[in-house]
Amino acid sequence: MDKSKIPTEQRAALALLLDDHRAVKKLFKQFEDAKEDADKQSIAEETCRQLTVHAQIEEEIFYPALRGVSDKIDDMLDEAKVEHGVAKDLIAEIESGEKEMLDARYKVLSEYVGHHVEEEESELFPAVIRAKVDLADVAQQLESRKSELLGETA
Ligand SMILES: [Fe+2]
Ligand SMILES: [Fe+2]
Q: Which of 12, 27, 71, 101 suits a disulfide with 47, CB 3.0-4.6 Å?
């Protein structure tokens, strides 16, 4: 999704979420390229931290702002909620689970999150743009909540 093509009213909010998606995809790639267990472990921890904050700001601020806009968007939000739940279970397993299972769990997490991100970017975000939802305030709320949460986990 090309940020410059997003209308002004939605641009800042969607750009913030798109940047989060890019950052996590970069971590997925870094994990794939990592050779040492210690590197994999720290990349996995950072991935879990970023995904947890991203999911939380979407759930607290972004998704509620879209509730009721249309039946189609409501259906997508329901699906997103279920997908976040599955991702959180995987994150919890990665954070507390056995080291031998890290590669397998991380692989499943990256595939699963890749699918969810793809749906947001190809279905949800375009629907939000088509519905002309004004996200200017939402952008500010996402931004400040994100820095607050990242500060807490630093
Ligand atoms: Fe999401
Ligand atoms: Fe997202």
A: 27
Which residue segment(s) compose the domain that 14 sits in?
A: 3-153
The whole-number pLDDT of residue 71 equals 97
Q: Which long-range contacts (CB under 8 A, 24 or more apart) does 112-120 make?
A: 112/83, 112/86, 112/87, 113/24, 113/28, 113/51, 113/87, 114/25, 114/28, 115/83, 116/80, 116/83, 116/84, 116/87, 117/21, 117/24, 117/25, 119/76, 119/79, 119/80, 119/83, 120/17, 120/21, 120/80
Among the residue ranges 67-71, 94-98, 147-151, the one predicted with the least confidence is 94-98
pLDDT over 70 at 14, yes or no: yes
Q: Give per-residue pLDDT as tens, 17-37.
A: 999 999 999 999 999 999 999
Q: How many domains does the chain have?
A: 1
Q: How far is the CA of 32 from the centre of ligand 1 (A)?
A: 22
